[in-house]
Amino acid sequence: MVVAAGLSLASLLTLGRWFGIRPALRGLAQTGPYGLVRHPLYLAYLLADIGFNCAEWNGGTVLLTAGGWALLLYRIRAEEHLLAQEAGWAT
C-alpha cells in the first residue's frame, strides 16, 4: 500500500493542474510515471486494493473493491475515448 501511495503522489504531482474528477482533454502527460505506464494512477489504485484486501480479507472488502473497480472501468473507458481524440495519444 505504501508503493501505491507513492505512485499516486508521483502521478498527481506530474499531472498538476491537469488532474480532474471528470475525464476531459486537459493535456497529455508523458513524463514521470506517465512515461513508463499509460495509467499510473489506476495502477496505484489496483496495488492499493490488493494491499488492502491482503490486510483485511473478507467478503465485504472484496465486494467493495469489485464495485469500485466496476465504476473505475467505466471511467477508464470514458477517459480512453476522450484521449483517443488527442493527436499524441497512441491507441
Characterization of the model:
The chain is mainly α. It has one domain (2-83). Helix content is 60%, strand content 0%. The chain contains 3 helices and no strands. The chain has helices at residues 2-15, 40-55, 59-83. Helix 2 (40-55) runs antiparallel to helix 3. The protein is globular and about 45 Å long. It starts with a helix and ends in an 8-residue tail after the last helix. 7% of the residues are buried.
Q: What would the average pLDDT be, to the nearest integer?
A: 88
- Taking all Cα atoms into account, the compactness measure Rg is 14 Å
Helix content: 55-70%
Main β-sheet description = none
End-to-end distance, in Å? Answer: 30 Å
Count of the separate structural domains: 1
> What spatial form do the alpha-carbon principal axes imply?
globular
**Coarse structural class:** mainly alpha
**Count the strands?**
0
Oligomer: single chain
Strand content: under 5%
H-E order = HHH
The tally of helices reads 3
- Unreliable sequence segments: none
